[in-house]
Amino acid sequence: MDWLWIILGVVLVLAGIAGSFLPLLPGPPIAYIGLLMQQLKNDPPFTTKFLIIWAGIVIITLLLDYLVPIWGTKRYGGSKYGIWGCTIGFIAAFWMGPAGIILGPLLGAFIGEMLAGKTSRQSFRAAMGSLVGFLLGSFLKLLVCFFMLYYIIAAA
Fold first, then answer.
1. Alpha carbons 3 and 122: distance in angstroms, whole number
2. How confident is the model at residue 152, as a pLDDT?
3. Closest by Cα among 38, 13, 51, 34 to 142
4. What distance in Å separates the CA atoms of residue 44 and residue 37, rounded to the nearest whole number?
5. pLDDT given at position 23
6. Residue 7: CB partners within 8 Å, gap ≥ 6?
7. Which long-range contacts (CB under 8 A, 24 or more apart) does 106-114 make?
8. CA dist 78 to 82, 110, 135, Å?
9. Cα dist from 51 to 1, 19, 37, 58, 66, whole Å
10. Which of 6, 73, 85, 139 lies at a C-alpha separation of 20 to 30 Å from 147?
11. Which sign does the torsion angle of CA 116, 122, 124, 125 carry?
């Protein structure tokens, strides 16, 4: 029966890895469920403290996933208009799939900066900051999911 939990946990973590890039799958929470599945084995491998720490990591990762693109916009010279544009673009394009998740904040930051009266070059730079932020957020989610995969395999 333990193999069922191991296989289910690995499948959930793999779905979490896919969710690090796909907009409708919350990657780290799905991977965390895979980690929790390991507790159903005859000899549970993780302590409560370990699971609470990982729950905190998952929550922080989810928060950073939304905040890092905004930070990227600001870091690359974006104003409040660009930051709001990035946020609105993300929300508006969320349902358009992976392309919307990338293009929404990018276009939103660009349009916001143009409305703020910046040049197209300055606006494009701020928009690229939102893209860099998105990529950093995706990398962070991917890293967290791979660590959970490691723990599941090590516990097997």
1. 55
2. 94
3. 13
4. 9
5. 66
6. none
7. 106/130, 106/131, 109/73, 109/78, 109/82, 109/83, 109/85, 110/82, 110/85, 111/85, 112/78, 112/79, 112/81, 112/82, 112/83, 112/84, 112/85, 112/86, 112/88, 113/78, 113/79, 113/81, 113/82, 113/85
8. 5, 9, 17
9. 22, 21, 11, 10, 23
10. 73
11. negative
How many CB atoms lie under 10 A from the CB of residue 118?
20
Write the Ramachandran bin of 97: left for phi over 0, alpha for psi from -120 to 50, otherwise beta.
left
Rounded average pLDDT over 40-47: 94
Whether the full predicted model's pTM is greater than 0.85, yes or no, is: no
Residue boundaries of the structural domains of the chain: 2-155
CB 134 within 8 A of CB 72: yes
CA distance 77 to 21: 26
- Cα 32 to Cα 135: distance, rounded to the nearest angstrom: 21
Q: Copy the structure tokens of residue 54.
A: 């990982």
- 94's CB contacts (< 8 A; 6+ apart) are 23, 100, 101, 104
